[in-house]
Design goal:
heterodimer; A: mainly beta; Thrombin, subunit H; five-stranded mixed sheet; 2 helices; 37 strands; 4% helix; B: alpha+beta; Cytochrome Bc1 Complex, Chain D, domain 2; SH3 type barrels; 2 domains; five-stranded antiparallel sheet; 5 strands; 12% strand; globular
Chain lengths: 553, 264
């Protein structure tokens, strides 16, 4: 085409198209509510507001899963340091995949090839400090905007087409430990998020921000101050402990649109392993809180570990489902807790229905009072106390899954671990850890030793299937090493998960039988997803420094 | 110069004075050839990977223009190189000695001459920025595609800081000869599938087997080359104003663009 011809062509076609900005489909709040209508998309961190991480796609079945093959790998590009754990859950919609390369680079990928459309590079403030890795769990979407929290406590809005920054706000001072690792939750025109930092003496909160401007709309203090409900549970005479009370947020909450309630798990109280400075139950740490997303007002709460001294953050996913409870339909919330107990709670009222250990537990004796308060029997001592499960917990931020098809709850588990908790002084120095003495752990929380150097008594990993009606373990897939992997279940009765050995596999959702496996050469430390493109179902998971996408041969 | 008496003329004169002063300042310096040569080597080893051999590979940054958003004096420029720019890929480089920094600054200040292009250094007359703004959003049609701090299409560069990163001569050149230099990240590609259907878009990425574009309706789209009959770069999407605007209007437009600088 000559230049003249081209300019004529442009005058006729291209210039008018300049006005077409924004004419494409956007991810409206309604679309997020109706994920069931677009099963080929993965629009929310959990795939759905209910936290089930369950896909209704069913092309890949127990019969053909052996034909699953690698389609492409995208490698994390590490900037300015060694590669961190790749924990992000990608979103996939409108022919684009979005994820976060740790710590905080947002990337738009072609889901067919893994080629990059754009990368938004964010260099966090050098004052950022995070207890457990410079990680990020993913983005959320509203309209044409992606939202990412950064490890320096910033919340960023990024245009999903151009990859350009729209706004950038800060939730708290990174030098004091305020950080964001959680994938935000979008409800209506609000983006909802809270800070990590429970090891640095932060005061936690959950807050909603205007998706268009970043202006704060409401804030719920997970550690109440004077005059706020729950403050009576911080009983130190000086009334100072709440200021450093912890209550961090680092796993995305869930939402029931019919009840208009959202549910967030809240982190540990500070200091972690010496509770002497903070007598009382220390609400709302180690609790699930049910909030009205319009106002941030607390509707109910349930505290799993009152006056925690074992670092049993309750930042696990509150999974929502309607199940048969004692023969009658009931709207429940299920949460497999870091403290080793699987819980079923009525999500309309917060009524405690069931609490049953899913690993060996000795910090409580298995009994609860009528309101569901656990009968605690052990605490850290100056001499050291042997407590099960260990400090990393029976499970952690790793996404569980609930399959309405099988009725089973699948939980990534660290089996039968222990720590020796020793009580020591904890002194607050701004910006430094405010914890007490680190408990011993046979299984390290972050770095994995070679599996062949470990002994079975150190604990093993497992994916366990729990019947939520009884709390009984239905099956258990045991691994030689522990797991930081999430679980995906599908309508065709498959369960996908992995572990620190770097093996990613598919299990029969009914029996736990292993049907397919692939060695990925790096720890699986993220939640798998499923999506559909051009009529074909795919499975994606991050492991090591790569994002792996599988499809049928 | 009668245009300066129109509404907005004061702004135009002020902008012109400031910019002329800066241009003269940059040109009056002389740098030792040995320093420039030393700087060239350091640039090639440390800077070329991102900034490119023309100094213009980073979006909105034109090192060859001799103008820097965050530094005016040579000392400030040296300090900037050493400290880096927080929040960007421009990382701190404390390893540079003072003499190395002198070399780098010498090279950067004379870069356009060193790299053989004289476009950016050419003197241009700046007109009435107020009238330039009217043209931009009116009859010249620039604002139909380009935003200024938002408001434009994602396909085209937002010009909110164009005056901070491009020289007047380079801006004038782009207005008159838009296809003379299409920058990386602003190139359009047309693909034709095997049925003969053509689609165009802003090139985002490509490899041996695939092409990723932002289509003209602002979608991220990927094509497998095996599905295509042909693919090729398009000339600049920007129509030339060469035979459309008077030279006075072009001067006004350039004056307006030069005035667009983001406050730090």
């Amino acid at each position: 085409m000559t230049l003249k011809k081209f300019l004529t062509f442009f005058a006729a076609t291209a210039l008018p198209l300049c006005f077409a900005a924004g004419s494409h489909a956007q991810v409206s709040p309604e679309r997020l509510l109706a994920t069931a209508n677009t099963p080929g998309d993965w629009l929310l961190y959990h795939g759905n507001y209910n936290g089930q991480r369950y896909s209704t796609l069913s092309q890949i079945t127990p019969r053909n899963v052996a034909n699953l093959e690698l389609k492409w790998i995208w490698q994390v590009r590490s900037r300015g340091g060694s590669s961190e754990k790749f924990e992000a859950t990608p979103l996939v919609f409108d022919g684009v995949m979005y994820t976060v390369s740790p710590p905080n680079d947002v990337v738009a990928l072609d889901p067919k090839t893994g080629r990059v459309f754009w990368t938004y590079n964010y260099t966090p403030d050098q004052n950022a400090r995070v207890c457990c890795g410079r990680v990020n769990r993913g983005v959320a979407v509203h309209g044409d905007t992606l939202f990412m929290g950064a490890i320096d406590g910033h919340l960023l809005a990024i245009d999903r087409i151009s990859g350009k920054l729209k706004w950038n706000i800060t939730l708290g001072d990174p030098a004091l430990g305020y950080a964001i690792t959680v994938a935000p939750l979008v409800i209506g025109d609000k983006v909802i998020v809270g800070p990590a930092g429970g090891e640095y003496g932060i005061r936690g909160f959950i807050a909603a921000y205007d998706v268009n401007t970043g202006a704060e709309i409401w804030r719920f203090n997970t550690v109440p101050g004077p005059g706020e409900a729950g403050f009576e549970s911080w009983q130190d005479p000086a009334q100072e402990a709440w200021k450093l009370g912890g209550g961090s947020i680092w796993t995305t909450g869930t939402y029931d649109p019919k009840l208009n309630l959202m549910y967030w798990g809240v982190g540990n109280p500070g200091p972690d392993w010496n509770g002497d400075s903070r007598p009382g139950d220390n609400l709302y740490t180690d609790s699930v809180v049910a909030l009205n997303p319009d106002t941030g007002k607390l509707v109910w709460h349930y505290q799993f570990t009152p006056h925690d001294e074992m670092d049993y953050d309750s930042t696990q996913v509150p999974v929502l489902a309607d199940i048969a409870w004692q023969g009658k339909p009931r709207q429940v919330l299920m949460l497999a807790n870091r403290n080793g107990v699987f819980y079923v709670i009525d999500r309309t009222t917060g009524e405690f229905l069931l609490g049953k250990p899913f690993v060996a537990v000795n910090w409580m004796d298995g009994n609860f009072d009528a309101k569901g308060r656990p009968n605690r029997v052990l605490s850290p001592t100056a001499e050291g106390t042997f407590i099960m499960p260990n400090n990393q917990g029976a499970t952690n931020w790793y996404s569980p899954s609930f399959s309405p098809a099988t009725g089973l709850f699948y939980v990534p588990t660290w089996m039968d671990t222990y720590s020796v908790y020793t009580k020591r002084e904890a002194q607050y120095i701004p910006g430094q850890t405010y914890v007490g003495a680190y408990p011993t752990m046979a299984v390290p929380a972050l770095a994995a030793r070679l599996t062949n150097q470990r002994i079975p008594e150190d604990g093993t990993g497992a994916i366990q299937a729990i019947d939520p009606r009884t709390g009984q373990i239905v099956w258990r897939h045991v691994m030689s090493d522990v797991t930081d992997s999430g679980v995906l279940s599908t309508a065709s009765n498959l369960v996908f998960a992995g572990g620190r050995e770097g093996i990613f596999y598919a299990l029969d959702a009914k029996t736990g039988a292993e049907l397919w496996k692939q060695r990925l050469g790096g720890q699986v430390a993220s939640g798998p997803i499923s999506f559909q493109l051009d009529g074909k179902q795919y499975i994606a998971v991050s492991a090591g420094a790569g994002l792996f996408v599988f499809g049928l041969r | 110069m009668s245009r300066h008496h129109r509404r907005g003329g004061c702004l135009g004169i002020a902008a012109m004075l400031v910019l002329c002063a800066q241009g003269v300042w940059a040109q009056e310096h002389s740098y030792a050839p040995s320093d420039i040569e030393n700087g060239r080597g350091l640039y090639q080893a440390n800077c070329l990977g991102c900034h490119g051999d023309q100094g213009s590979s980073v979006e909105s940054v034109d090192l060859g223009s001799g103008r820097f958003r965050r530094a005016t004096s040579d000392e400030e420029l040296a300090a900037l190189i050493r400290a880096g720019i927080a929040g960007t890929l421009m990382i701190p480089r404390p390893q540079f000695s003072d003499s190395e920094l002198v070399g780098l600054v010498s090279f950067l200040r004379t870069m356009r001459a060193q790299t053989g292009s004289t476009v950016a250094a050419r003197e241009v007359v700046l007109g009435n920025a107020g009238h330039g703004e009217e043209l931009f959003f009116g009859s010249a049609g620039c604002g139909n595609c380009h935003g200024v701090g938002g408001g434009g299409s994602r396909l085209y560069v937002d010009l909110a800081n164009i005056g901070g990163t491009r020289s007047p001569a380079s801006l004038e050149n782009s207005i008159l000869y838009p296809d003379a230099e299409v920058r990386e990240g602003q190139r359009f590609m047309q693909v034709v599938d095997k049925k003969g259907n053509a689609r165009a878009g802003l090139l985002m990425n490509q490899d041996t087997h695939s092409i990723q574009v932002m289509s003209l309706d602002e979608k991220l789209v990927s094509f497998a080359k095996s599905d295509l009959k042909s693919w090729a770069f398009l000339p600049s999407q920007m129509p030339s104003s060469r035979d459309v605007l008077s030279s006075a209007d072009v001067s006004d437009l350039v004056a307006y663009l030069v005035s667009l600088k983001k406050a730090e």
